[in-house]
Amino acid sequence: MRYRLIDHDLPDEAMAALVALLRENAELAALESVREIEERLPVFRRPDDPRYRDILLLTVNWTVGQFIDLIEDSDDPLERLLGYCRELGAVTVKEGIEPEAWQAAFRIGAGTSIQLLSEAATKYPGITAALIGQVAQRVLGYLDEITAAMAAGHAEGLAVLQRGGVDVNERRRRLVEALLEPEPDRDVLRELALDAQWRIPRRAAVVALRRRDRTRRPSVPADALSGLHLEEPCLIVADPDGPGRRRALETELGRGWTAAIGPTEQVTGLARSRDWARRALHLARFCKMDGPGLVVAADHIPMMVAVKDRDMLEHLVAARLGPLLELRDPQRLRLAETLLACLECSFNANEVAGHLHLHAQTVRYRQRQILALFGDVIHAPERRLELILALRYWRAGTVGHM
What we know:
Layout: H1 12-40, H2 50-72, H3 79-95, H4 99-121, H5 129-163, H6 168-179, H7 186-195, E1 203-211, E2 225-227, E3 234-238, H8 245-253, E4 257-261, E5 265-266, H9 270-286, E6 294-296, H10 301-306, H11 310-320, H12 322-325, H13 331-344, H14 349-356, H15 360-374, H16 381-399
């Protein structure tokens, strides 16, 4: 018996043990791989379509099974699997899943399978770490062939659609505009999404964008809809609260763009998410938060409400911070920073010291200065929110951060 995929000088008994080990763990590896794929790649999470998970599991199962067959039997052609992958790649055009997402999915599955195999191999004395390493190395080459076939199928499917006069990008632009309507019709959205090859998620959010660097185009996540054609550019991001999604968005959008994300909504409520995201983006400009981080609208509600009426805020600053404003810098800035921290930490000197990276005795000295300026009014519960808003607004316009 010849073993097509692995070069070795081991006796047949050792290779037979390896094949037995692979077959014994194949089903578990497939199940665990699908779980990892769904957890780490939200585009593959489809709780409203159990049939899709079955297809994903079938694909992973067959891929694992074919790999084992190719180790054991050199006459089992790889072309049969590659043909299936080309067909699957063509189908994914309508599903809105890019080849890169499938490539990531297969690599996650391969990593999970190899880890399980390595753990199980300790039970078989004839199977060495070197042999497992050979399997892992061959898996990577095997994946390259599979993903190349899927990419080719995807390109063929896309070409067929384009030859038929279907402009997928234009369909997606129309879908974005429909999703951002105040009260979109769910049936219309479903039809537009089908035409645009975009899976409607259970929940989504809008990310409002402002360009900082004219030479860069934002990196759009594979399962997001691009609204860069709009006068106020944005993205519609599926399932933004999933594990690691916020960090991934910060990484993808933080280069050259300021990004603000609105609250997560049902797809019929994305106009609200868009409005919040825009207000957060406006706040970021006013407060000079145009950095690489993702501005989360829900984290800045009081200030977003306040800056809608700048005249009232100016009056609030003058009425509540008068004694402070009469001081000169840098004392004025130091005491403003300390008063804000005191209000947010209930005047606990130790907490304020930790927040400002100061000695507690320094904080207590500043607290006495603040009390001499304002009197006991700074401890009045009904004035706490007013003082915080006034301080944040004044500091944003004075020192360029919140």
